[in-house]
Write a structure and sequence with these properties.
This protein has 215 residues and is of the alpha/beta class. The protein has eight helices and eight strands, in the order H-H-E-H-E-H-E-H-H-E-E-E-E-H-E-H.
């Protein structure tokens, strides 16, 4: 669902041409009617469109297996907060290039069978959202000038390390890091549990802390 009917129709044509069974609309009521008639593997919705929150809540309640991707002109902290609250697996900045949308849709579909094999183009938060919804066990390694490591078990963040910090303080630092390469490796045996809080409140509090610290 998009506020831009032209962009929405273009995306529908592109997806159908690539073998997907796509339907687009820029009206929330029509989107709800479509979802009541047929099952959808993935829903793409504009965070700024009127009624998007209601739509995503209904998707989560009626069809838990449906994956939601949200788009926004600014993929900032507030957008990720809304994405986490709505159960979305990805946040994309508009205008979205067709290859980026296709990559996001493929990643969402792959959650049924495991975890996307490529983390190319994903932010740390996007990777955590995907790992959470896939209920994966893995170590996410953030490479760069200031590396960090996040440990996920059953989709929950159980441990984080960043230089001299561990636990939630390390998680907060990692989320502040500038973009770097991201890779997933097997969760090491005996990984300590320095983080005990559930995924949603953990990430929401971390993002709110980042928002408050922002200049």
């Amino acid at each position: 669902m998009s506020r831009d009917p032209v962009a929405s129709a273009a995306l529908e044509r592109d997806l159908n041409a690539r073998g997907y069974d796509a339907t687009s609309t820029h009206d929330t009521a029509e989107a709800m009617a479509i979802l009541s008639r047929r099952a959808m593997d993935v829903v793409v919705a504009d965070l700024g469109a009127l009624g998007t929150n209601v739509l995503l809540e209904q998707v989560s309640a009626r069809s838990p297996q449906t994956r939601a991707i949200v788009t926004s002109p600014e993929t900032g902290i507030r957008d990720y907060e809304r994405a986490i609250q709505s159960g979305a697996v990805r946040v994309l900045r508009t205008p979205v290039r067709s290859p980026d949308m296709l990559h996001a849709i493929r990643s969402a579909l792959e959650l049924e069978t495991g975890f996307p094999p490529s983390l190319s183009g994903l932010s740390v938060i996007d990777a955590l959202l995907l790992a959470h919804h896939a209920r994966r066990a893995m170590e996410l390694v953030v490479d760069g000038w200031d590396p960090g490591r996040l440990f996920v078990e059953g989709g929950e963040v159980i441990h984080a390390v960043s230089r001299d910090l561990v636990g939630e303080r390390a998680l907060h630092r990692i989320l502040q890091l500038p973009a770097g390469s991201l890779r997933a490796v097997v969760l090491p045996p005996g990984t300590p549990h320095t983080i005990a809080r559930p995924f949603r409140p953990l990430l929401l509090d971390a993002l709110r802390g980042l928002a408050e610290a922002a200049p």
